[in-house]
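Hi U.,

Before I forget, here's the chain from the pilot set. I'm dumping it here mostly so it's searchable later in email.
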Amino acid sequence: MLQRLIPDRFILVLSATIIFASFAPLPAKWNDMGQMVAGIAIFFLFFLHGLRLSRADVVRAASDWRLQGLIALFVFGIMPLSGLAASIMAGPYLPAGLVIGIIFAGILPTTVQSAISYCSIAGGNIAASVIASALLNLSAIIVTPLLLILLSGSALEGSGAELGPEFAIKIFSILLLPFSLGQMMQRWLGEWASRRSKMLGIMDKAAIAMAVYIAFGSAVAGGLWQVVDASALLIIIMVAMAMLIVAFGGSWLVGTLAGLGLQDRIALMFSGSHKSIATGAPMAALLFPGPEGGMVILPALVYHLLQLIISAPLANRLNQHGETTRKMAL
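Structure:
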């Protein structure tokens, strides 16, 4: 039952990380060292992504351009606009960091694991979901920062965001460079990585948890819970719920209007609606070093938790509907 409710157990690790960071944040005197450790962890994380993502899978993904194009359009088109609209409506009642965080949540790529897991439970096109995850997370290294600059505008002024030439160098050295090295090392380490996928998966998640702890803990030490009171947190939850309604309902409607089959519609819905903390946490740590990063990542964390809660019964319902349809066809 727990496996069906929370196929991505990593949300439990993230929840524990947030609680721990709230009560035991990194001391301010260790902040610079923490940022350096986080940078090393992020470098290693994207090296693993490059090592484990087969180039053959990327090439194969391009063959179903119609479905993959719709997923990409929804993730990097409709959802960013949804986040922008939500930020405008909630903006007068929230601190600037959370407003940027709402936009940031909307422009993140799909999850690596949970979207695929729920797609499998619902009886959707698993292969399409796997390839969409790979392509969107790779594209997000460039697309997400560009969308943030385009949609956030003046909201970024005074936020501490590093979006100039120095940030471009950071993106290259901490994200693109390790990913490229991983791709180049596949010839020698690819088989080794495939045999140790479970161990590397744990290391992968540990790097993400470390980035979340340092960013969120820094925000707590900087007075996050004094700025974000119960009413602000309630607004963030309501905003996340509204965005999820647009995400799930809109993606299903797009798939229906495009004439996709049931399996492809399911893949579009879960890949289009889910948002990745695996990419979001490292990206926030790079874009917003210091306390601001924890505030910016908070809406994405809330969205991530709620997407899992909603996805469980929805996937089970779709699975039952699919089984009923197949029986009637027989």
